[in-house]
Amino acid sequence: MLRYASFIAAALAGALLTRCLSPSSPAPPEFASEPLARVSSRLRALAQHASSHRRRVVLVTGAAGFVGFHTALQLHAEGDAVVGLDNFNSYYDVRLKRLRAALLHRAGMRTLVEGDVCDAELLRTILREGRVSHVIHLAAQAGVRYSLKKPLAYVEANVRCFVTLLEAVHAVNNSVPIAYASSSSVYGLNTLVPFSETHRVDQQASLYGATKKSNENIAHVYHHLHKLKLTGLRFFTVYGPIGRPDMAYFGFTQERTLHAPRSPPPFALHAPHLRLMPSQAILAGRRITEFRKDNGDELQRDFTYISDIVDGVIAASRLAAPLEIFNLGNTRPEKVSTLVKCIEAGLGRKANSTRAPITAGDVPLTFADVSHARKLLRYEPKVTLEAGIRRFLLWYSDYYQVDLARDFMPSRKEAHELKVKYNINVNRRRRGRQLEYA
Ligand SMILES: *[C@@H]1O[C@H](CO)[C@@H](O)[C@H](O)[C@H]1NC(C)=O
Ligand SMILES: *[C@@H]1O[C@H](CO)[C@@H](O)[C@H](O)[C@H]1NC(C)=O
Prior knowledge:
Blueprint: H1 14-21, H2 36-52, E1 57-61, H3 66-77, E2 81-86, H4 94-106, E3 112-114, H5 120-129, E4 134-137, H6 146-149, H7 151-172, E5 178-183, H8 207-226, E6 230-235, E7 238-239, H9 248-253, H10 278-284, E8 287-292, E9 300-301, E10 304-305, H11 306-319, E11 323-328, E12 334-335, H12 336-347, E13 352-357, H13 371-377, H14 385-399, H15 412-422, E14 426-431, E15 434-437
Parallel strand pairs: 1-2, 1-4, 2-3, 4-5, 5-6, 6-11, 7-10, 8-13
Antiparallel strand pairs: 9-12, 14-15
Helix pairs in contact: 2-5, 3-4, 3-11, 5-7, 7-8, 10-12, 12-14
């Protein structure tokens, strides 16, 4: 458990906010990604090296995205040859994607292609030249609320590009297994809890959910017709360091503070039921909106820490089942107020919250039954919400130069992870009562 720091119930002034929230991480480095022409020779070299060392060659789409980055980093650490593909689109602040690309490069991954999954020729070239043995497809148009505003972006990215990928794999090598991202959103209006893969799911509440369900249907078709190996992974509310800003981002960008030139993207916890991203709103002393059910009950989410998701994704890729679907959740739904409390404790500030009824597209509760993944993938979620929010805040405080609560001291393990994954040096010695960030 986090120690609850003294709450400083003070709203920060606007000027202070701008200063505090300026990204401290350096501008995108020389390397981020390259056009295919320049990486193709390295792709061939990678394929050569992988084959002489009997390594897998894994194509990770959306490698500069949140789940894609963490998956690619872990695969690389485990010795697989990783080819990344990402279009670096501007759905949210591209600086975060460039930072992820830079961190992959720092880790030694030299094959991140800037391109689109809807580009069939590009895909076939990568699959052939890189002699890709496994595909992990994580590129997608994410976000529940945005699908109300930009429906066709979802059809394009989540349906057309998905079919393009399957066609490319079919054209090059039918035996290459594909693990792809689905979502807890496929459960939609389902009221049976916990959510099980055996439940019939045909009542999605958002177009986002419907496109993800259609991926599962399309997967069935390609398996049936061409024997492609396809595993769908239903992610439950993934959060963690260098995460992605969710839908609330768009509501927030319209607000004055985000028009400031150096102001940051909103914080990256995927919390569609909060209109403002909680830690920023809390920092700014702004009001956060907690959505409630009609009877006043709180919404609950099965928040799942990124490393648990990555373990599940990699296990599914290695299993290479003929046709499967797995829930990847934490199996511990938490109230939104619990999340807010964890953030308040870390920041040492109290949230200013207000309530509003649940909005269209959102659902009151998500709760994963992960027994199927436990059995076949040995999946076991390990990170509690408290521990995961700690790790998120440690990254966040460095990136935006935000002070954490005075007694918020990273453990040796946390400090090590910050260094290895995110190139953040934390001096664990106390200087006065403040942490020193080198
Ligand atoms: C096709 O993919 C499978 C699975 O990765 C691999 O074992 C096989 O060698 C590939 N075949 C060719 C011709 O590359
Ligand atoms: C909470 O937010 C509202 C709206 O922004 C503001 O008027 C009010 O003063 C805030 N209260 C505190 C205690 O910061």
